[in-house]
Write a structure and sequence with these properties.
With 186 residues, this protein is an alpha/beta fold. It contains five helices and six strands; from the N terminus they run E-H-E-H-E-H-E-H-E-E-H. The longest helix is centred in the last third of the chain and has 23 residues. It starts with a strand and ends with a helix. The relative contact order is 0.18. Bound molecules: flavin mononucleotide.
């Protein structure tokens, strides 16, 4: 039997009760049978300093190693001021350096997000997709998982109660796994 597809997921929020972290936990339960979703917490990644890109801090080394070992990436992001949260962009910047050691290179990726607003992180996701071009990642286009008005979609225990959102998350993960297998065969 072939090894399961390993997806590494991380959320662009450090908040304990983050809806995006909750959405990532939910994804762990909706992942296809022939895949596993591992989670990496961005807490503790210092601010990027190019002076140290060749010898990055321990937490960054761990992050890069986990990305390198994964077959595919899942990014779950909030939207801050119509764009990518600094925490997420900072982590991506570390992992993309130094030149020749961009660990995202050639990886399939899926993105989803939850926000309290009406566009459900759409603007942040499009900015993130722009980064995928220079990172040379292969993103899943559909479905776009935009969980808007998020306070209504989770229960008091942080469980996603919106069936349509769950369906979209499941479909996105299914597409990510299928896409990863297609790239493996090529
Ligand atoms: C600095 C900051 C900027 C924000 N900007 C936006 C925004 O542009 N669009 C939006 O829909 N929500 C915005 N929000 C609200 C977030 O959607 C909300 O705080 C959400 O819960 C953050 O995700 P989290 O629960 O995973 O931490 C902003 C929140 C913060 C703290």
């Amino acid at each position: 039997m072939r090894k399961p597809i390993t997806i590494l997921g991380f959320a662009g929020s450090l908040r304990k009760n983050s809806y995006n972290k909750a959405l990532l936990r939910e994804a762990s339960e909706l992942v296809p049978k022939d895949a596993v979703l591992e989670v990496f917490d961005l807490e503790g990644i210092p601010l990027f300093n190019q002076d140290f890109e060749a010898q990055p801090p321990k937490k960054v080394k761990q992050f890069k190693a986990r990305i390198r070992a994964a077959d595919a990436i899942l990014i779950v992001t909030p939207e801050y001021n119509y764009s990518i949260p600094g925490v997420l962009k900072n982590a991506i910047d570390w992992a993309s350096r130094p030149p020749g050691d961009n660990v995202f290179f050639d990886k399939p990726v899926a993105v989803m997000g939850a926000s309290t607003g009406r566009l459900g992180t759409a603007r942040a996701q499009y900015h993130l997709r722009q980064c995928f071009v220079t990172l040379n990642m292969y993103p899943i286009n559909k479905p776009e998982v935009l969980v808007m008005f998020v306070k209504e979609k989770f229960d008091e225990n942080g469980k996603l109660k919106d069936e349509e959102a769950k369906e979209h998350v499941g479909e996105l993960l299914g597409n990510l796994v299928a896409w990863t297998k297609r790239l493996r065969k090529a």
